[in-house]
Amino acid sequence: MPAVWLNWLEWLHGTPVALAMRQSAWLYPTVEILHILGFCTLVGAAGLFDLRLLGLSRQIPVQQMAAHLLPVAWVGFALAAPSGFLLLLPDAQSIGVSPVFLGKMALIGLAGLNAWVFHARVGRRVQAWNQGVNPPLAARLAALLSLVLWVAVIALGRLIAYLG
User: Fold this and answer.
1) Per-residue pLDDT tens digits for 67-87
2) Distance between CA atoms of 10 and 157, rounded to whole angstroms?
3) How many CB atoms lie within 10 A of CB 91?
4) How far apart are CA 38 and CA 147, in angstroms?
5) CA torsion, points 76, 70, 120, 43, in degrees to nearest 10?
6) DSSP alpha helices (H): ranges in 14-91?
């Protein structure tokens, strides 16, 4: 593990916010609830869109579904990311080096990359398969990968508490 990373984790662990998260009876659980709500919102929106791409509810136009769900997903991310960072602080030195935590972060990055590639490539041609037909194979594969990645992120997120 690079020394810079370990030093940063040690610094995080000693911040006043980390101390407050450790000492308050309500702060950590409150932030954890916000993190779960944010993650549910993000993964729920992504999952519904993924299911549409996999062929469910073909009567709903993909563009309208994306226009509705993408802002919801961003709200979820905006809630989940900072609350997740706050949850790291009280035990930054052990969680920050955990392979489970690092794996979760890597999978979140892959999920984001998958979404970016989808929107930059396949999503640009959505007019051709917007409604009533099956999306192209590339869109369905991106949706399947997205579902697998988000389920794995959730599983690793839960395992942090048990495996460190």
Assistant:
1) 999 999 999 999 999 999 999
2) 21
3) 18
4) 17
5) 50
6) 16-23, 27-53, 62-88
